[in-house]
Amino acid sequence: MIDIAIIVPLVAPVARLRMSHAFCPEEWRGEGVPVLAWPEWDTRGFALLPSEVAALVSEWLTEPRKDGRRIILTRSEVAVLRVCRMIADGADIRATVHFPGSAYPPAIVDSTGEVDAWPNGLFSEDFEEVMAIRRAQQKAEEKNK
Q1: Largest CA-CA distance found in the chain, in angstroms, rounded
Q2: Contact status, residue 105 vs residue 67, Cβ threshold 8 Å
Q3: What is the per-residue pLDDT across 96-134, written as a single tens digit (0 to 9) for each?
Q4: Which residue of 20, 37, 71, 108 is surrounded by the most CB atoms within 10 Å?
Q5: Is residue 40 included in any domain, yes or no?
């Protein structure tokens, strides 16, 4: 079993976030927990493509090492979704999403990959854009009838 804390900082300054262990769950501190920090950026500061982020997260979670606790520090929707998908696909992973710097409680990812208590509006931009595109398409279809 791999126990994952996904840290999604909402309001903390970026300079403070470099100390990623400071954002791990209290009970995990001092354990030498492996951290995948900012998988959406390469070592030179260039943004990775979403497919590269998903592949990196998958590879990091499936690489051979003993079971245990791991932390993903990210603001990438793709990274969070990949963990949810891996759980839904049957991976032996338990995940909790934390939102330090906010009043939101941690969200639990269940065995189907669903997240309870997700903050309204977080990572909703893509969905809202797709819905806006669909509404525009429907208007164009109606206009062309």
Answers
A1: 65
A2: no
A3: 998 887 888 889 999 999 988 888 888 888 878 888 898
A4: 71
A5: yes
The reply to whether 131 falls in a domain is no
Please give the residue range of the domain that contains residue 67. 2-117
Phi, psi angles (nearest 5°) of residue 123: 60, 25
Query: Helix, strand, or coil here: 5?
Result: strand
Q: Is the pLDDT score of 12 beyond 60?
A: no
* Tokens 């969905």 sit on residue: 127
Six token digits for residue 47 = 């943004």
Structurally, how many domains does the chain consist of?
Answer: 1
**Does some domain include residue 48?**
yes
Angstrom distance (rounded) from CA 66 to CA 19: 24
- 59-109 pLDDT, tens digit per residue, is 988 887 766 788 888 888 899 999 999 999 999 999 999 888 788 888 999
d(CA 73, CA 17): 9
User: Which region, left, alpha or beta, applies to residue 62 given φ > 0 means left and ψ of -120 to 50 means alpha?
Assistant: alpha
In a domain, 89, yes or no: yes
